[in-house]
Amino acid sequence: MSIDFEMITTRGGDSGKSGLFGGERRYKSEQVFAVLGDIDELVSMLGMVRTEARSRQPAEEQMDRELYEIQQALQNISALIATPVSNLNKIKPLGKTDKQWTSYLTKLLERLEGIEKSYIGEIKLDGFIIPGSNELSARLDVSRTICRRAERQVVGYIQNLSTDYLRLCQNYLNRLSDCLFVYGRHVEQNPR
Known about the structure:
single chain, 3% strand
């Protein structure tokens, strides 16, 4: 498939505005775009983590698959956050209503907690963690700090919005940072 230059370079953002799901245009300085930018950065950093996980000998194949699932979940969360609350049930991002999003996010949280529990029994904690024992654990720790920043942005964004599904997005990012911490310790304590 050939991509037209105008498809990528629309010049729509030249005025300092960007579009939300459904076409609403807002200034790029609004907090929703800070949230979306931090999640985008996290998804990209997790791509770097996955690349490093696959390059280990033997490869961290299970972690690679789990992180891919997490990247997909974060992309879906971004679609939800990019939908103005007032339009959620009109637009239905990814075909889900607010109740369906609540159910979906609850399942994502359960899956993430299951992943964390599967690794936590293999690690020991004593003292402060100084990142950098190896490339993979360092990338996981950078991912964790990006995740924490994204979580802080979500907290600020949703403070005045009363929506269960956005609170679950906040919870997901909180659990994800815990999971990334556990992944990092697992990698440090199980060198290849």
